[in-house]
Amino acid sequence: MNSKGAVVADVIVIGGGGAGLSAAAEAARLGRKTILLEKNPSLGGSTAWSVGSISATNTPHQLSKGILDTPQDHFEDLETLAGNYANRDNRALRRILVDHTNEMLHWLMSVGLVFVGPNPEPPHRQPRMHNVLPNSRAFPDRLGRHCRKLGVDIRLTSLAERFIVEGGRVVGVVARCNGRQLEFRARGGVVLASGDYSASAELKGRYAGEDAAKLEPVNPTATGDGFKLALDLGAVIVNGDIVRGPIMRFVPPPRPNLLQMLPPHRWLARIMRWSFDRLPPNLLRPFVMSFLTTALGPSVDLFKRGAILVNKDGRRFADELDKPGRMVPLQRDREAFIIVDGRMAREFSAWPYFVSTAPGVAYAYLEDYRRNRKDIFHKSDTIEGLAKSAGMPAAALADSISRFNAGGRLQGGERLALTEAPYYALGPVKSYVVFTDGGLKVSERLEVLKENGDPIDGLFAAGSAGQGGLLLEGHGHHLGWAFISGKIAGRNAATRASTLGS
Ligand SMILES: Cc1cc2nc3c(=O)[nH]c(=O)nc-3n(C[C@H](O)[C@H](O)[C@H](O)COP(=O)(O)OP(=O)(O)OC[C@H]3O[C@@H](n4cnc5c(N)ncnc54)[C@H](O)[C@@H]3O)c2cc1C
């Protein structure tokens, strides 16, 4: 603490998700006094909400299966994944991403994280997806321990409220720590790793439009605070209109399920990895399913095969084959139900028809929902009984089904009438924004840039905050970017501290 009562460090990191923890670990490894401010009472952010997939090349997992892969192939496959958006990608940052995935995975494993894989995800030309065990809470758990071991001063319930700027240079942060306002001064730099703005109606409205603004976020604390602080200093958001959503997902269960309650300890992860390699998938299924039926959304195949979507009044409100998720937020309580019949229930009990999937991990069928999600699973021999169970007017539901049956087959060819008892309703489902892809414009050193390309002295950004126009299509690239960009930003802030002399 200096004579004016400010806490002084070399590097200050805002945010304790994947990017912030990586930045803090790197700065501390380089011998710099590092403070990490996290507004929530626990570490993790969206990183701890994630599925936990990371796409990487030349990993021990790939090599053990004889898969030869290259960062260049990964770079090209990302171009394919980006499709029509490819020209909006920041290819310089993409290059950084693909060139560092191998080093990143080795580093994560060195701090005790355990992965299974690689799993295929076309159009990736090689299986590249690795999944963390036992769940994504292992990231903040292991990285938090690692940071503490390196001496990082982690302050929870500490909300960064504004930057301290002197002579055009960011020299610190004012934060509210457990209700008390404190000043933190950084001799080297401040790393902004404060996540995305999926929970900010204001930023979603400004960059992605009013429809996006109305959507609920998966992570309600992703309020984009860091963006607002940086915009005040002349920073700019790139690709702010790109949001992952609306995506329909089942509402979360009232209580955490088995997998969510598992402590993310290394021993458990190792046992699970051993089991994944050796045990028949059937034995592991109950564990994996308790996750799969919690966090994920319904497959579009449900609608292609004939499922209809009704609101709480029992009424259809959208063409189920034309992005129905856009209409869900306009229904009562922003909720909807998926209705299927006995024929579809049989179809959706085995591959290729599944209700939900974590790509590359497993598939959940209707029976998995009956077992794991009794709160959203309704079944009855009659439409009246189903309506009663799901809490909607029976006459309206019966009318919706019979109107669909009269004309439904005209839509989408494969859609068949819902005539066979028993009838099922899955829901409520809601439409969510999973994450936003707008990031602050950054240099390849992860310095935050103004519109004209000049860096804001002393300010770095990483992860979602420092996404810089990088498209991260497919699965497993957002987490990769969080860890990789975090380390680079932490290193550059640390180096700046030594250059300026501490
Ligand atoms: C449901 C879901 C599933 C996903 N699955 C995957 C996946 O499998 N693979 C993948 O690659 N990506 C996935 N993603 C995306 C990925 O999780 C995120 O892009 C990534 O974790 C972002 O990391 P981050 O460190 O930038 O942000 P976060 O992990 O969100 O961390 C930001 C932290 O900053 C804190 N913070 C914010 N403002 C302040 C402030 N003012 N002061 C102090 N602290 C602050 C927040 O509380 C938070 O802890 C998923 C996302 C979601 C929501």
Written overview of the protein:
The protein is α+β, with helices and mostly antiparallel strands and 502 residues long. The chain folds into 2 domains: 7-244 and 434-500, FAD/NAD(P)-binding domain, CATH 3.50.50.60; 251-431, Alpha-Beta Complex (Flavocytochrome C3, Chain A, domain 1). The chain contains 17 helices and 23 strands. The chain has helices at 18-29, 60-64, 71-82, 91-110, 138-149, 201-208, 210-214, 225-231, 258-261, 266-278, 281-295, 300-304, 342-347, 366-372, 383-390, 394-407, 477-500; strands at residues 7-14, 34-37, 53-55, 114-119, 129-133, 153-155, 158-166, 169-177, 180-192, 216-217, 237-238, 243-244, 247-250, 308-311, 336-340, 356-358, 362-364, 377-380, 423-433, 435-436, 439-440, 447-449, 455-461. Strands 1, 2, 6, 7, 8, 9, 22 and 23 form an 8-stranded mixed sheet that branches. Strands 10, 13, 14, 15, 18 and 19 form a 6-stranded mixed sheet that branches. Strand 8 and strand 9 (180-192) form a beta hairpin. Helix 1 (18-29) runs parallel beside helix 5, helix 1 (18-29) runs parallel beside helix 17 and helix 4 (91-110) crosses helix 17. The protein is globular and about 75 Å long. The mean pLDDT is 91. Flavin-adenine dinucleotide binds at residues 14-20, 37-40, 44-47, 49-53, 159-160, 193-195, 218-219, 221-222, 225-226, 295, 434-435, 463-465, 475-479, 482.
